[in-house]
Amino acid sequence: MLQPSEHILRCRAPFLGAVLLVVADYAAMRVLAPFQIPVGLATGAVGGVYMLWLLRKVR
Q1: DSSP-derived 3-state class of residue 45
Q2: Which of 9, 21, 27, 57 is deepest in the core (most CB within 10 A)?
Q3: Cβ-based neighbour number of residue 33 at 10 Å
Q4: Residues 33, 37, 43, 47: is their CA dihedral positive or negative?
Q5: Can you list the pairs that 50-54 forms with residues at least 24 positions away whose Cβ atoms lie under 8 Å?
Q6: What is the pLDDT of residues 25-55, one digit of tens each?
Q7: Which of 12, 20, 13, 14 is nearest to 43 (CA)?
Q8: What is the reported pLDDT for 52?
Q9: pLDDT value at 3 more than 80
């Protein structure tokens, strides 16, 4: 059985992932206006910073 907090997390995770991709895609198109960087770079940058934050938080 899922705990109530796990149920909420499982319901929100797909939505938040989609929002992250849309924001990363928009930022990738608008940050360097005449050039377009790959959305994977923008997503990786956000994910990398988040992972480092999580690692610092655990210690």
Answers
A1: helix
A2: 27
A3: 7
A4: negative
A5: none
A6: 888 888 877 888 888 888 888 888 888 998 9
A7: 20
A8: 92
A9: no
Show the tokens assigned to 45.
């940058």
The length of the chain in residues reads: 59
Q: Bigger pLDDT: 3 or 15?
A: 15
Tokens linked to 55: 């690692």
Helix 4-30 with 39-58: angle, nearest 10 deg: 140
Taking the model in full, what pTM does it have? 0.63
**Dihedral over Cα of 50, 43, 15, 35: its sign:** positive
Q: Which long-range contacts (CB under 8 A, 24 or more apart) does 50-57 make?
A: none
Give φ, ψ of 33 to 5 degrees: -45, -50
CB atoms within 10 A of CB 37: 14
